[in-house]
Amino acid sequence: MLYLLFEYLHKHYDFPGLGLFQYLTFRASLSIVLSLIITTVYGRRIIDYLHRKQVGETVRNLGLEGQMQKQGTPTMGGIMILLGILIPTLLFANLTNVYVILMIITTVW
Q1: How far from the centroid of its chain's Cα atoms is residue 41's Cα?
Q2: Contact call for residues 52 and 41 (beta carbons, < 8 A)
Q3: At a CB cut-off of 8 Å and minimum separation 6, what does 83 contact?
Q4: What distance in Å separates the CA atoms of residue 97 and residue 79, rounded to the nearest whole number?
Q5: What is the pLDDT confidence band of residue 9, given thresholds at 50, 70 and 90?
Q6: What count of other Cβ atoms lies within 10 Å of the Cβ of residue 85?
Q7: C-alpha span between 34 and 42 (Å, rounded)
């Protein structure tokens, strides 16, 4: 979304520095930094929320050593991964690209 906004502003108003968003390496760098921030800041909050809601792993006793240590581990940690992928993609990717749309659909699916 920001890519399309900055592209529009660059074409119509020619603000200095907005052409930087046309470079894939710049947008990829911003995506990496934002993904890291999202997972570190909100990751702990998501894990605490899952602990409060008691969404945890139930372990069957198979007689394995250290097996019971996994009791109560949150099983929905993939939410952090999805947020770390989808939010930077929606913000910084070219949403008119068919491959980006396909990636978003398959990730959500």
Answers
A1: 12
A2: no
A3: 38, 39, 42
A4: 25
A5: confident
A6: 18
A7: 12
Q: How many residues are recorded in the chain?
A: 109
Q: Which tokens hold the place of 20?
A: 């930087």
pLDDT tens, position by position, 14-43:
777 777 778 889 889 999 999 999 999 888
Instruction: Mark out the alpha helices in the chain (DSSP H runs).
Output: 2-12, 24-52, 78-92, 98-108
Query: Which region holds residue 63: left if phi is over 0, alpha if psi is between -120 and 50, else beta?
Result: left
Task: Look up residue 61 and give its two tokens.
Answer: 């006793």
For the chain, the straight-line distance linking the first and the last C-alpha, in angstroms and rounded, comes to: 21
pLDDT tens-digit profile of 55-82? Answer: 666 666 666 666 666 666 666 778 888 9
Unique residue bearing structure tokens 């998501």: 46
3-state DSSP assignment of residue 69: helix
